[in-house]
Amino acid sequence: MSNKILEIQDLTVSFDGFKALNNLNFSMNSGELRVIIGPNGAGKTTFLDVITGKVQPTVGRVLFNGNNLKKTPEYKIARMGIGRKFQTPRVYLNLTVRENLNLVCNRNKNVFSTLFKKPQSTEQRTVAGLLETIGLEAKANAPATLLSHGEKQRLEIGMLVAQSPDLLLVDEPAAGLTDEETENVGSLLLALAESHSIIAIEHDMEFVRQIANDRVTVLHEGSVLCEGTMEEVQNDPRVVEVYLGEVPE
Ligand SMILES: Nc1ncnc2c1ncn2[C@@H]1O[C@H](COP(=O)(O)OP(=O)(O)OP(=O)(O)O)[C@@H](O)[C@H]1O
């Protein structure tokens, strides 16, 4: 058995004849934190949409832990262990941080026991552990609406992690964050990377430098332009060219 968590083979996605992804090949090992960058329109979001089953390949295939995801509905792919964090946080604003986490931690229990029984101490420990991981212990009892944008991002990442995904997909987690929050979210992803496989799509190069300890993949016009360490990628003339000087030194 290979330890490839994800393999994408000859993938093309056409929208009315326009190839958002064009014969793309990609693979990553279990346990990797892979950062994907690329200029606007490179196909990054479509790439995540295909992995989660939101969009079907026109040609090619996506293998998750060796299983072809062809025609598998989104909810089943999520159950198979792929969790996605969207750009805008999707937390319950009128619930507290702890209640938001409790909801996902209890999702697999039956409704009756969730409503009428006190949580078991092991469940409480899970929520406590998550609160610590995402650095929101002090705000556990605050309604999520009072959190900053960055704190909401961290809460949502915690809610995803509570579902123990094998592969975590995060779409521009640093978008719209202050420098301090960007660093907090980066540290959180690095901590999670010790026990999860993660794909992060990102525009903010400062953030990419913080989290890109493993390989970086550059997408351009729906294909993989190059792959390597952040340093290799940044110094690749093809990358500099497609970003037209956008990549800061
Ligand atoms: N449903 C769709 N119908 C038609 N064209 C689409 C559709 N979804 C995406 N595209 C096109 O496919 C290309 C890739 O889009 P995608 O959103 O995947 O790029 P991206 O790298 O995520 O861009 P950005 O960085 O701007 O978010 C774009 O040219 C986009 O306009």
UniProtKB/TrEMBL annotation:
Pfam family, one: ABC_tran
Record domain ABC transporter: where: 6-246
Keywords (A to Z) from UniProt: ATP-binding, Nucleotide-binding, Transport
InterPro entries: AAA+_ATPase, ABC_AA/LPS_Transport, ABC_transporter-like_ATP-bd, ABC_transporter-like_CS, ABC_transptr_urea_ATP-bd_UrtD, BCA_ABC_TP_C, P-loop_NTPase
GO molecular function: ATP binding; ATP hydrolysis activity
GO CC terms: plasma membrane
Gene3D superfamilies attached to this UniProt entry: P-loop containing nucleotide triphosphate hydrolases (3.40.50.300)
Keyword ATP-binding belongs to the record: yes
Highest taxon, organism lineage: Bacteria
Name under which the protein is recorded: Urea ABC transporter, ATP-binding protein UrtD
Organism in which the protein naturally occurs: Hyella patelloides LEGE 07179
